[in-house]
Amino acid sequence: MKTNKNELEAIFPQDEKGSDQYFTGNSYNYTLVDVDSVFTTAIGNVYFEPGARSNWHSHPAGQILIITDGIGYHQIEGQPIEIIKKGDVVKCPPNVRHWHGASPDVGLQQLYIVPNTEKGIVVWQEAVTNEQYRK
Fold it and tell me: The whole model's pTM is what?
């Protein structure tokens, strides 16, 4: 149960803290479906604390995000930042640079689906600057 409007309802537990090499702020990944040769799909839940975000990155076969709670941002390179919230579905095209994370004041929970993992999972790039994040 939420105690105030800025707390998120957790569907899955917080697990491994995201590496400072790939994330700004605190984010936590919980793996739901490990990569294997049968399903060739990675699925997990990421909780971003307010202000936390991923680095720029891309996925060889693309990525689908399902926002389960909170408010956040998503940006595909060269396009304006989109506000994302509970119930939104975001498709990140294959090999297209993008980033996503929480808004400054409210956290974000998302399920991620990475299909066709035999093509690769993620290519991490540089951090999103504070200037880029605040646009």
Answer: 0.90
